[in-house]
Write a structure and sequence with these properties.
Largest sheet: 9 strands, mixed
Shape: globular
Radius of gyration: 20 Å
Strand content: 35-45%
Bound molecules: zinc ion
Distance between the termini: 10 Å
Structural class: alpha+beta
Number of strands: 17
């Protein structure tokens, strides 16, 4: 069966792997319906669209994303229309803003318990971050973290943010990892070495602070991305699709790590694409091979 639609997001499941989040027209062609298409064992075709569509909004209270109610075509500089931006009502810079500047949905969301986590993309690439307790797995996988561990669980986003800032400054950790360094880390990733680095950092944090080691476990997130062990030795070509030239890409699903999708070509090489860059701007066709 062929699934097709505008790709507006991606998600991961620890057991069944990655999914495209796509919007398709309803039978009356009056609105979009959001659906998830699994990528494992699929042949995938990606065609760039001439227009950028709004990728929709997030209902913070339910932690679900929904299609743009107005099916807006927007400037290619944006991913969401103004209406959807207001509907989501989330400002990531909440910690430097007055509470009166935040939406009611975000105030409520910020008051939920938040994890402070360490996410490793490679042995020299470990960041600290925060995630609402209902979104931890989602937050780690959408960034493409390979290994992760929880430092602490705090009663709200403000206290989590404060601990995150302390860890950033004391242990010289980034709260952001660039696309370029993530790509480099994927190619050279070595799991056991990276595990040693993240465990070592975690132990150092625990020993130098008053934080109890309530979450000793290091999560291996690779099952959410791929069934293949390693990219070492693979020949990878990074593809840029062009809106002007009506370009397309196809191949068999190999892996999806965060927003980076790898498709196997007939000559066994891998074509890689940063899906995040094209959300709302590509039509995807997915056919499962069994
Ligand atoms: Zn919209």
């Amino acid at each position: 069966m062929l699934h097709a639609g505008i790709c507006n997001g991606f998600e991961f499941d620890a057991k069944s792997g990655p999914f495209f989040v796509v919007d398709i027209q309803d039978d009356q062609l009056t609105h979009w319906i959001r659906t998830r298409i699994p990528l494992r064992r699929a042949k995938i075709n990606i065609a760039v669209l001439s227009q950028q569509y709004c990728t929709g909004y997030c209902q913070l209270s339910e932690n679900v994303t929904l299609p743009c109610p107005q099916r807006k075509i927007i400037s290619e500089r944006f991913k969401v229309c103004w209406h959807c931006f207001k509907l989501t009502g989330f400002n990531p810079a909440f910690h430097i803003l007055e509470k009166s500047a935040l939406s009611t949905a975000q105030l409520h969301y910020n008051n939920k318990p938040h994890y402070v986590y360490l996410a490793a993309f490679g042995k020299d690439l470990i960041k600290v971050g925060i995630a609402c307790h209902v979104r931890l797995f989602q937050r780690l996988t959408e960034q493409g973290a390979r290994l992760a561990t929880v430092v602490d669980l705090l009663p709200d986003a403000y206290q989590a943010r404060k601990l995150e800032e302390t860890l950033q400054s004391v242990f010289v950790l980034p709260d952001r990892v660039t696309r370029k360094s993530k790509i480099k880390a994927i190619i050279t990733y070595e799991k056991e070495q990276t595990r040693q680095y993240i465990e070592c950092l975690k132990n150092e944090i625990i020993s130098k602070s008053s934080i109890k080691n309530t979450f000793p476990y290091v999560y291996d997130l690779d099952d959410a991305y791929t069934t293949h062990n390693s990219f070492v030795g693979s020949s990878i070509e990074w593809i840029r699709l062009s809106r002007q030239h009506d370009t397309a890409l196809s191949g068999y699903f190999y892996a999806m790590i965060g927003g980076f999708l790898f498709l196997q070509q007939p000559d066994q090489t891998l074509a890689a694409i940063d899906i995040h860059r094209y959300l709302g701007n590509i039509q995807v066709y997915v056919r499962h091979t069994n």
